[in-house]
Design goal:
Blueprint (H helix, E strand, L loop, with lengths): L1 H13 L1 H21 L14 H12 L9 E7 L10 H12 L4 E5 L13 E8 L8 H15 L4 E6 L11 H17 L2 H24 L8 H31 L4 H28 L7 H31 L7 H4 L9 H12 L1 H16 L7 E2 L11 H13 L7 E6 L6 H13 L4 E4 L3 E2 L5 E8 L6 H12 L1 H8 L2 E5 L1 H35 L3 H26 L15 E2 L2 H29 L4 H29 L6 H33 L8 H6 L29
């Protein structure tokens, strides 16, 4: 592979104009496709194979007019202090009448006709149902609702709106721009050249735009939601900058050894480019592996993000060498451009590696103990899907949530929907009523609504209100108790039932995610182990990489629980309300962070193996690897942390958690695992670190990640001053 990529790099350098034109053509084609694409599908979440999803689908089938997935609004009224809602009936009725005439409205339930007034008379709510989904709701429909609410507020009532109708899309923050700005500064400090820093950023931006516009162009073909593009952009920016950084760094190193520009570009593609290919493959494996979880949304997000990583790899292997052809000397450090040799100091990376190699045991123990302590809070992780209670109090949705909880009880915001199938019952109405009576007698249930039947009269829907909040452990226990008592209830009533609703769905999703986590982790770790076995031709190095990753991801989960669940430092990170961790986050974070962790493993350890293959002793090879790659890996990790942290500002809760989790995972993995644990373990193992059974050595194909086949292709000459070097 090294030889192929060497030729590819030389070819891209030579035919640089054509390569740039091809990438610009790809960008233009993606742009045209994105412009002609229709509206993006919604971020609808479905999870086949769980009870709550089956019951939800059953409701949609039996009650087509109810639009179970349609937009809705819950208008909450709070009377002035010392008054009751009944004393303010006129403005409430006026709002109900006005909203009912609005466009796309299917119906409005008045609080006085629906029994939606609190016992103390201070709070009431009206439910608005729409004929269309939230994404299809027009601005005219939203404006009609807002106007009616403002009119009611003018009478002295406190009026807030919950539900999905007026739910605003998460606003993009300035953090994304700041993150890229930090990346630019890190690149400038690392390279000491504006051209080198700019080249890495420009190529990354081109690659990300190609990826994003391609996703937009294909969004209706593959049902790709907006979250797919947002996460693809987050990951694409980070890996694209890092991959370009490694190729440009190797190019500068080869120029320092005396190679001509075109030859240096080929060698950079053949060595660093090979590491980029295998690093990218580990990320792609982890992302595509999300398909084994069985959640369509995760599968689509994984595929979209994997496509962005593939584009980043192609950019690093072709566009970066091509642009180096236009700036062969400008990307060099000022000292090199003036024809002076680089400084002979070891550098901080080599000095640190030498320190670790001399004291591997205490350094290893401290690092493992620190990560273990950071991971401890993860043992108490609670999974769920934060709703309006996690939003800031500045939003109307959060204020409506709080008013309902105060007026009707904490469980009112998370009712359980019970779907009764009485098709085989002698008296369907009596059977549904019997199920309702049994549920009402269950401890933890405050009330059960009368059953509502479909047109055929065989399927009924009941609403059971818990006594506790939707995300409380007591509510989860209640759902489990109801399902555990189901056989006895069904036998007595003569009908079957299933439990659904947002609360039950969140519980079922969390349970399925927990069951899928270990198989998924085993799948991606197993595949990545084989890939790293092929790259490093060692059994212990891939094993050490996997174990180190488990330490770093555990610490990342501990940090997430500390901030988002326990609320420590929540305000600093922009978390308005602590709560459960999103159910899909652990498995999603495991996949992406594993791929990124293996990135640093490949980049750092491949230079150590290269030095070892070229004859250096194991301990000396560790120091050499840090001398050449330590500074670059540190810069790459800083760039990734900056990009991921930037997505925490102004984004939705999922993106906020993912950004924080990835930034923490990169911090712990790149700084602690790869910079501390890896050199300590390699120093302790010595020559055994590179052990591979002979029979396995004969079976494995050679990929030459260390560029051994290129070593004597063109011997380096004495370094030539850059100003005298002509373009090739």
């Amino acid at each position: 592979m090294a030889t192929f990529l060497y030729r590819l790099g030389r070819g891209a350098f030579r035919w640089r104009r054509w390569v740039v034109l091809l990438w610009l053509a790809a960008l233009a084609a993606a742009f045209v496709g994105a412009q002609s694409a229709g509206k993006a599908p919604s971020d609808s979440f479905s999870m086949p194979g769980i009870e709550s999803q089956r019951a939800f689908d059953h409701v949609n089938e039996k009650f087509p007019g109810a639009a179970a997935d349609g937009a809705d609004a819950r208008v909450v009224f709070t009377a002035p202090p010392g008054q009751k809602i009944t004393e303010n009936r006129v403005p409430v009725d006026a709002l109900v009448a006005r909203v009912a005439k609005g466009p796309q409205v299917a119906g409005v339930e008045s609080p006085f006709e629906d029994g939606a007034v609190s016992k103390d008379g201070s709070t009431a709510f009206a439910t608005v149902a729409y004929k269309v989904t939230t994404d299809d709701l027009t601005e005219a429909s939203k404006d009609a609702l807002r106007a009616a609410v403002e009119q009611a507020r003018g009478t002295g009532l406190t009026v807030e709106v919950g539900g999905s109708a007026l739910e605003a899309d998460p606003a993009g923050g300035v953090g994304e721009i700041l993150g890229i700005g930090v990346a630019a500064v890190v690149l400038l400090i690392t390279f000491g050249s504006l051209a080198a820093a700019g080249l890495s950023l420009v190529t990354a931006i081109i690659g990300v735009f190609v990826s994003l516009m391609s996703i937009t162009a294909l969004q209706n073909v593959f049902d790709l939601s907006p979250s797919t593009g947002e996460l693809a952009m987050m990951l694409g920016v980070a890996v694209a900058i890092d991959y370009a950084l490694f190729v440009v760094s190797r190019y500068r190193e080869e120029r320092g050894r005396g190679h001509e520009p075109r030859e240096a570009a080929g060698l950079a593609a053949g060595t660093a480019g090979t590491a980029v290919v295998f690093a990218g493959l580990t990320v792609v494996i982890a992302l595509i592996g999300l398909s084994v979880v069985g959640v369509p949304m995760l599968t689509r997000i994984g595929m979209g993000a994997a496509g962005a990583v593939v584009v980043a790899v192609l950019v690093a292997l072709t566009l970066v060498p091509a642009l180096l052809g236009f700036l062969p000397n400008s990307v060099l450090a000022r000292r090199a451009r003036k024809g002076r040799a680089a400084g002979r100091g070891e550098g901080l990376g080599a000095r640190w590696a030498r320190f670790v190699v001399r004291r591997p045991v205490p350094v290893l123990l401290v690092a493992v103990a620190a990560l273990g302590a950071l991971a401890a809070p993860a043992l108490n992780m609670r999974l769920g899907m934060p709703g309006d209670e996690a939003k800031p109090t500045s939003t109307s949705e959060r204020r409506a949530y709080d008013a309902l909880a105060k007026g009707f009880g904490p469980g009112f915001n998370g009712p359980l929907t019970v779907v009764v199938d009485a098709a085989d019952a002698r008296d369907p109405k009596a059977a549904a009523a019997a199920v309702g009576a049994k549920l009402a007698a269950t401890e933890g249930v405050v009330s059960v609504s009368p059953p509502q039947f479909d047109k055929a009269g065989t399927t009924a829907v009941l609403t059971a209100t818990p006594a506790t909040a939707p995300t409380a452990q007591e509510t989860k226990d209640l759902v489990r108790d109801i399902r555990a008592e189901r056989p006895a209830i069904e036998s007595a009533a003569g009908a079957t039932f299933e439990v659904t609703g947002t609360t039950a769905l969140n519980i079922d999703v969390g349970a399925k995610m927990q069951k899928a986590l270990l198989p998924y982790l085993a799948t991606i770790v197993g595949l990545a182990f084989l890939l790293l076995l092929l790259v490093f031709r060692s059994v212990l190095v891939p094993l050490k990489a996997a174990l180190g990753y488990l330490l770093s991801i555990g610490a990342a989960f501990g940090a997430i629980v500390t901030v988002f669940q326990n609320g420590h430092g929540a305000g600093f990170f922009g978390v308005d309300q602590p709560g459960p961790i999103m159910s899909i986050l652990p498995i999603f974070l495991v996949g992406i962070s594993f791929g990124l962790a293996m990135d640093y493993q490949v980049f750092l350890v491949s230079r150590m193996r290269e030095a070892h293959v070229h004859g250096e002793a194991p301990g000396r090879a560790v120091v050499t690897g840090f001398r050449h790659s330590g500074r670059v890996v540190a810069a790459a990790s800083l760039i990734m942390m900056a990009v991921f942290s930037g997505f925490m500002t102004g984004a939705g809760m999922m993106i906020k958690m993912v950004g924080f989790g990835l930034a923490a995972a990169v911090l712990f993995d790149a700084v602690v695992v790869r910079m501390v644990i890896v050199p300590a373990v390699l120093a302790l193992l010595g020559e055994r670190a590179w052990w591979l059974p002979r029979w396995l050595d004969r079976l494995l194909p050679r990929v030459d990640v260390e560029g051994e086949s290129l070593r004597d292709r063109v011997p380096p000459r004495t370094a030539v001053p850059a100003k005298r070097t002509a373009r090739v």
